[in-house]
Amino acid sequence: MIDLSSNQTLFVREENRRFVPASITKVMTAFTAFEMLDSGKLMINQRIRVSDATFEEWSGKGSSMFVPRDAMIPVDQLLLGITTISANDGAVVLGEGASGSTANWIKAMNANAQAIGLHDSRFGTPNGWPDQGYTFSTARDLATLAKAILIRHPSKFRRYFGHRGMEFNGITQENHDPISGIVDGADGFKTGFTNQAGYGFLGTAERDGRRLIMVVAGAARESTRDRAAREFIEWGFNAFDSRLLYARNAKVGIARVQDGMLDEVGIAAAGPVRIAVPKNQNANVKISVTYRGPVHAPIAEGEEIAKLRIDVDGLPPTQVPLVATQSVQQANFFTRIGNAFGALLK
To answer: For 304-314, what is each residue's pLDDT tens digit?
Structure first.
């Protein structure tokens, strides 16, 4: 469990153990589509044709939108089907239509996984259908994927995740998400199940400015997973006090600058920084700023140049990015000479 508001890990057990994510794989398919939408390689109202081969293999297979043969389905509807009713057929139709083939789509999924730091994951299908263990992930990687969606695509997250059900092709189906619309503040992500994987869930909830991300996996029964997910997310909110450490854009410190028109630059939190502290405990809290300095100019306002390290007794240490409060232009030749002499005289 991660508190995204503070970037703290609140609970961890076997977070790097590889397992089969099953339909949680579709969260990576959604992320890949979101990235393509942002880059203009895919359009939200673009219609994608259901090929004969895809219809024959996937329509009605497992969780399904029951896509009709030869139908032209908007990307928006495919994404809703993938994220809400876990449509295996919708994931394949989207992947083929967006990238030309399932193989190309899987290549894009894995490239995106590496780009956001999923170093212990591999994807072999767009939908998580069993593939003899080729597809795998870890709890840590799935939490990182969830964080990437929430930070990079907040409006798309709100549009496509957390719905209790949807109707398509005259058929109404429910979402199996055990917390969204049920637990206060819960609003999305994805379940998964295969006989090999058991029952798993990647979920999130937000209350009073705190956003939690959780992963549970390997449950033997759906009811066990659902109960564990609800109790786990409630524990995350109830077992900790959340304190505001720094407001958005609050100056945290300064960093020395080399070869710049300024000798130093302020560093600030890009967003509000909260800290989770175990309730009813006198936990020690230590904070420190780290950066590789001096920082070389030019520096852009808002550029990440430092980290805020937070240590709380009983929890793993965490780091929060810090950004420059202003731009610093590179110094011209004469200014650099003056700075060099100034440094010698100090």
So the answer is: 999 999 999 88
For the record, the structure tokens of 269 come out as 């939190």
Say how far apart CA 68 and CA 62 lie, in whole Å: 15
The residue type of 321 is P
pLDDT at 209: 83
Identify the segments of the chain with pLDDT beneath 70.
333-346
Q: What residue ranges do the domains of the chain occupy? A: 2-238, 245-345
| Token code pair at residue 200 | 């798993």
Between helix 102-115 and helix 88-99 the angle, nearest 10°, is 90
Task: Compute the CA torsion angle 113, 118, 119, 123 (nearest 10 deg).
Answer: -50
Is residue 212 within 8 Å of 204, Cβ to Cβ?
yes
Determine if the pTM surpasses 0.85: yes
197: which residues sit within 8 A by CB, 6+ positions away?
Answer: 19, 20, 21, 22, 217, 218
Distance CA 155, CA 177 (A): 20
- Report the alpha-carbon distance of residue 111 to residue 42 in Å, rounded: 17
The predicted pLDDT at position 270 comes to 85
The pLDDT of residue 333 is 59
Give residue 223's region: left, alpha or beta (phi > 0; psi -120 to 50): alpha
Q: 208: alpha, beta or left, given left = phi > 0 and alpha = psi -120 to 50?
A: left
Among residues 69, 203, 85, 129, the alpha carbon closest in space to that of 77 is found at 85
For the CA atoms of the chain, what is the radius of gyration? 23
* Size of the chain, expressed as the number of residues it contains: 346
Please give the class, per CATH, of domain 2-238.
Answer: alpha beta
State the residue for tokens 């939200």. 44
Same fold, 2-238 and 245-345: no
pLDDT for res 331: 85
Torsion-angle region of residue 140: left (phi > 0), alpha (psi -120 to 50) or beta? alpha
Topology annotation, domain 245-345: Peptidoglycan synthesis regulatory factor (PBP3), Domain 2 (2.60.410)
